[in-house]
Amino acid sequence: MSDEIGHDDIVVTERPHEHVALVRLNRPKVLNALSNALAAKLAATLEALDADGVTRAVVLTGDERAFAAGADIAEFAAEGPRLEEWDRLWATGLPTIAAVRGLALGGGLELAMSCDLMIVADDARLGQPEINLGVIPGAGGTQRLTRAVGKTLATEMILLGREISGREAEQHGLANRSVPAERVLPVALELAKRLAQQAPNAVRAAKRAIAQAFEQSLHASLLDERQAFYSLLQTEDAREGVAAFLDKRKPVWQGR
């Protein structure tokens, strides 16, 4: 049974397993459309989990109809999105898994792509339809999507508004797994449990290093990776990992 560790009308946070948080977007009447308030609340939730000393992995999900169907268009027309909230979303050091059912469109797909892993329903619908509003993706869509699926498919999705299924998303490298809808959350939670069993400092360092592979030159990324490696060698967890290997036992990670 999950323990509810936080509730807001638009974000619900549960603790389904030790060291794992499940964060649900909760605007079902508008298919979890991403309002500025929702983005701010989600950012604050992730920041709190990142700092709580307990959470080691996060699963982010919506409901069976939609992960998130895009930006809140009424708010978009009135005041525009506050993209600085998205900078806060990207800053979390915790590994995150997007569990996607139903629609993941526009900002919803950008949010899913900002996670470290993505589990999608076979029949999910993913796309960047901003071109139909006379704009382009503004929260990473042109960059993350192109890096994930390649220029050819990304061009169709961004310039023509093509949607793809969850099954296609896995085939093109956008999603890690494509599974029946009822299996999305169990698979995502199982991966989160596995992440939470790893040395937390090493997971954070690896997450940063992987992100840097897309954000800077190979030379700079290799130097950062080496620095992180040497820093981790000095941690208690690294010493425990070596000792456990030599003792032929499972390591006990302390996050130090």
Give an account of the 3D structure:
The protein has 2 domains: 3-196, 2-enoyl-CoA Hydratase, Chain A, domain 1 (Alpha-Beta Complex); 200-247, Lyase 2-enoyl-coa Hydratase, Chain  A, domain 2. It is built from 11 helices and 11 strands. The protein has helices spanning 36-51, 73-78, 84-90, 107-114, 141-149, 151-159, 166-171, 184-196, 200-215, 218-233, 236-247, and strands spanning 3-7, 11-17, 20-25, 57-61, 66-68, 96-100, 103-105, 117-121, 125-127, 163-165, 177-179. A 7-stranded mixed sheet has the order 1-2-3-4-6-8-11, with helices on both faces. A 4-stranded mixed sheet has the order 5-7-9-10. A hairpin with a 3-residue loop joins strand 1 (3-7) and strand 2.
Keywords:
alpha/beta, 256 residues, 11 helices, four-stranded mixed sheet, 2 domains, Lyase 2-enoyl-coa Hydratase, Chain  A, domain 2, globular, 2-enoyl-CoA Hydratase, Chain A, domain 1
Summarize the structure.
With 256 residues, the chain is α/β, with parallel strands linked by helices. Helix content is 46%, strand content 19%. It contains 11 helices and 11 strands.
Distance between the termini: 30 Å
Strand order of the largest sheet: 1-2-3-4-6-8-11
| % residues in beta strands | 15-25%
Give the number of helices.
Answer: 11
